[in-house]
Amino acid sequence: MKYPLFGLFFSGALLTGGIAVAHHGWGSYDAGRLVSVTSNIQRANWENPHVTVVVTHENKNWDAVLAPPFRMSARGLNPDMLKPGTSVRLEGYPSTRTETEMRAERIIVGGTTYELR
After folding, report:
1. Predicted TM-score (pTM) of this structure
2. Where do the domains of the chain lie, and which CATH numbers do they carry?
3. Could you point out which of 33, 54, 63, 74 has its C-alpha 20 to 30 Å from the C-alpha of 47?
């Protein structure tokens, strides 16, 4: 091959491009409609690619997609703050695809507001 490094870089781009495509975008959330939910956390999942919590809103369990764990930590949040039973207020945008899912823009825990984006 005349340009062996080109082939190596091209192969790497193909492999990592699939990862970028696999990550969802935020286009499936209605940014024109802010939802506010105050509830106790039912379940929490602190792992990549995003921290998630389940809360009850209008007699339904809602999945809230928060920020990635590294950003949550950088904002001052940690897994112990989001344990089941903890009262939180979530503000964000509802999914256009799933009736009981939201993308949280901020979370209020213990009276402190944490911006997630």
Report:
1. 0.77
2. 27-115 (2.40.50.140)
3. 33
